[in-house]
Amino acid sequence: MVSDSTLHALLGAVVTVVLSFIPFSPVLGGGVAAYLNEADASQGLRVGALSGIIATVPLVLFGLLLVSFLGFFALGLRGGAALGIGGLLVVTVFGLIAAVYTVGLSALGGYLGAYLVDEL
Fold first, then answer.
1. How far is CA 89 from CA 49, 62, 63, in A?
2. pLDDT in tens, 19-57
3. Which conformational region is residue 24 in: left (phi greater than 0), alpha (psi within -120 to 50 degrees), or beta?
4. 55-65, pLDDT tens digit by residue?
5. C-alpha span between 94 and 118 (Å, rounded)
6. Which pTM was predicted?
7. HSE of 101, CA atoms in CB hemisphere, 13 A
């Protein structure tokens, strides 16, 4: 059985992914997760970060799909292997930056969501 914190983190991750076209959408997703969980500050950080980790999974899968798609077309080019390896390196670096961005802002949103629970 899934705990309430995990379910709320999953809902926050869905909010993050659906609103991903909005800058700083992980803050909204983490805030929703912590608010639904009715968490205090430390629990809000934890639930928000968990929401960010869950939201990172589709980002990683999309990045791998993109690299494999581009790598497939690079095989026919001269020096295609080097292009494929370079592309994988670039996507890995951007993927790590995106993961830190998503998890960090989700944790911030979790803290803010917990603050709203305390105030309202």
1. 26, 15, 11
2. 988 988 999 999 999 999 888 888 899 999 999 999 998
3. left
4. 998 878 887 78
5. 36
6. 0.81
7. 12
